[in-house]
Amino acid sequence: MNCNVCKNKKIQLLNYFGKIPRSFDFKKKKTIKKYKFLLSQCNRCSIIQLEKNGGDQSFVPKLKWINNNEPDQHLSELISYLKKKLKEKKKILLISNFDKKIFESLKNYKNIKLLDHKKYLKILKKNPNQFLIQNSIIKKNYNKKIYNIGKFDIIVSCRVLEHTYNLNLFIKNLEFFLKPNGTLIFEIPDSQKSLKQGDVAMLWEEHPIYFTKNNFIRAFQILGYKILSYKKYLYPQEDALVFRIKKHDIGKMTKIKNLDTEIRLGELFVKKCKNKKKKLISFLKRETNKRKKIGIFGAGHRSIVYFHVNKLSPYISYIFDDNQNKKNLFFPGTNIRVKPSQTITKNRLDICFLSLSINKEKKVMRNLSKFNKNIKFYSISPDSKYAF
Length: 388
Hints:
Rossmann fold; 2 domains; 15 strands; about 20% strand; globular
């Protein structure tokens, strides 16, 4: 495997996490295909990355109700910056529906354009996921109209870059729409905190790339870009980064501080994941030997990875989720049907692991305790005060 970002051939396998089902594979039948979860790290650009397994259609959910909801509360500062540039008559291109909050705030300006996926990218799906968007750009799967949109001073992309399986080519194809001396702005999740914590649930088949501030700077310097500015936005679980970059002389690469530490981050992550798994399994064995019934609330991509990487099948009796679309479907890769929380009254539950936004945990715990006041709660999120 070559590096997804800099194409370096010297890429180190960090760990094989086993075979994992796709996070959107909620089915009425038990049998589904699983995919190898291989995590590697490039020793040149230091990017930690998942190896792609399966064809392009493997990453496209067939269920219409599956949507990727991304945090956007921090975008107001970026919107203010872009508004200023629009007033300076700069042309701005937004590349996907994940930039919609920006577009809705600035759509009255004539010099901003949203790259409509149906009109320009030949994507007919109503709400395409990031894989479809980046795949069209990588493969130049365009309608002819796209070549008439012109060149832009600024190209903005929110929450797509970490989903690409060929970042090098993705950037090159975006450059076609960029004016000489133009700038690219990327908004991405910051994986540093989760990597340091050994938060295995951060891994997701739709996220092949795990950026930190330092590995992003290093990678884009190698690709011939300089960093004009960056800003970090803090969240309870996963922080966000916004970078503004432009083409630069590769020979003028700045030295990144603590690059050795960045390279060691992958090994640290795997070591912590293994230690946490050992602690978790020891606890679950002890509790199930006491005939305790254990469940998970929240049937999302975090709980799916957490369940399968830690091999929890022998210990988990129930999966609860109040999304009606998931009701009575099999939790991906298991023979456990997803049940609404109200069914707790019909099932004895002693321990419940929470897999949801940290800011919603207290409310969910309060609601579930109405059904059974003796439930012990633990969160799978390391930043939670209820963390296991």
